[in-house]
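Here is one chain, start to finish.
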Amino acid sequence: MAHFLSKARVVGSLALVLSVWLLIALPVSSQVTVLTVGPSGTYATIQGAIDAVVNGADTEIRVEENLTYSENLSVPGTFDSGSLEILGGWDATFASRDPDPEHTVIDGGGFVSVLDIGIAGGSILVDGFTITNGAGTGAGINAAPLSESDATIVIRNNHIVENYGVTFPTARGGGILVEPRGTQRLEIVDCLIYGNIADSWSDGKALGGGILIESRDSSTFLIENCEIVENSAQSDGGQRHGGGVHLRTSDSSKGILRDSFIFGNSILGTGTSKGSGGFLEIQSSATMEVVRTGWAANTVDAGDTTPQLVTNSWVGTNSFRLTDSGIALGDDGGLAVTAASSATVHLVNLTVADNPATGILATQEDTSTLAIYNTIAFRNGTDLATSGTVDAGSNLIGTDPLFVDGVSLEDRYYLRPGSPAENAGDNNPPGGLGTTDLDGRPRIIDGIVDIGMYEGIIVVFVDGFETGDTTSWTSATP
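Its structure:
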C-alpha cells in the first residue's frame, strides 16, 4: 500500500475498504456472554450494556448499526479480568455485521471524552465505530490507568474524528490519549484519526493533536495501518508538540508506529513548536521503531517553525529506528533527529524531499550513536546538516534521484530508469534493512538494495501496461 496518497484518497480509503467488508457472524463460544444494544436489542444504550458486564467473564457487546448513540462511555477500573469486546455494525437480528465505522456513531455531545477506559486487567476490544464530538483530555478516547496494569487495550477499525480536547494548562490527545503502565499492551490498528484538536488557550501546552501516547514501565504499544490526517495542536504562546502524534517511551517500554500515513496535520496559534506531523521522545532504556510511514504536508501556521518530524533520543541507553519512510512537502524542515546520552539511532532507507528548510537535521551528542544509510535527501532548502559524529553511508544527498514526479503524492517519489539510487545501497546497514519497502515490495529485488523508501524502478506506459516491477510486464486487461 502506498502511503503518499492524495487527500481525497486518504480520507476515503478506509471507508471504501470497510464498506465492502461484510462479515457474517461466526459462532460464539458458549463461554462468551452476548449483550445486544439498540432498538432491537436488550439494552437501549451502550453504557447500559457495559454496566451489565460481569468482571472476570468473557463478554461481547453487539451494537446495532445505522444509529447515532449520544453517550459518554466509561469502562471502569473495577474491570480487572476477563475480556470485553464492543462491536459496532450489527443488523437488527444481531446475526450479521457490516463493520464500516461510518454506520455506527457514538457522539460525545461536546462535554467530556466519548470513551474512557480505566481497566486494571483483562482485555478490551473496541471495533467498528465513529467516535466523535468529545471534549477534554483524550477527547475521543481516554485510556489513562491510575496504576500499573497488565491489561490489553485494542482500538481497531474505528474513525476517531472531530473531537476537541480543550484544557488548561495542558491539552493532551485531541483524538486519543493513552498512558500505558506496567505490562499493559495497547494497539491502535486500522483507524482513521481525522480532524481532532488539542487546544490549550493562553500560554499552556498542547500535545498530540491526533494521538498522545506516554508509555512507562515495561508496557508496549503498536500503531498500525492508520491514517492520521488534519489534526492539530494549538496554543497561544505555549509549547505545541506533535500536530499529528506525540509519542513517548520511557523506562523499558517499547513502541512501534508502522504502515501508517501522517498527512496535513498542523500546529496552530503562537509559541514554540516541535513536529508539525509528529514529536517522538525515547528515554531511559526504552525503544521505538517507525517503519513504512509517510509524512507529508504537515505545517505550522504561525509563531514558530518546526520540521514535520522531530525525534529526541536522550537520557539513557534507549534506541530509535526509522526506516522505509518518506517525509515530503512540509512548510519548513523534514526531519530533525537528536541522539544524546548513550542512545542508539538508526535511519535507514528514507526519502526526504521538497521541504523548504533542512531536509535532515542530525545531531549527535555525548556517547550516542547516530547512523544514516541508504537515504535520499533532495530538493530541500538544505538537504542534510549534521553536528557531532554521524555515521553516514550509501546515501544520495543533493543528487537528482530521478523521481517520477507524477501529479499525485502516490506516485511522485518512485524512481525512473537510470536513477543513481538503483542498486546503490548497503545491504547490511547499521540497524539492518527493513523486510519490505513503503509499498510492501521485497526490500532487495536485484541483489543490491536501492536507496530511498521505494525498491525498484517504475516504468510507466501510456497504455497502462505497468506494474512497477521491471522484471515482468502485466497487462492491465483481465
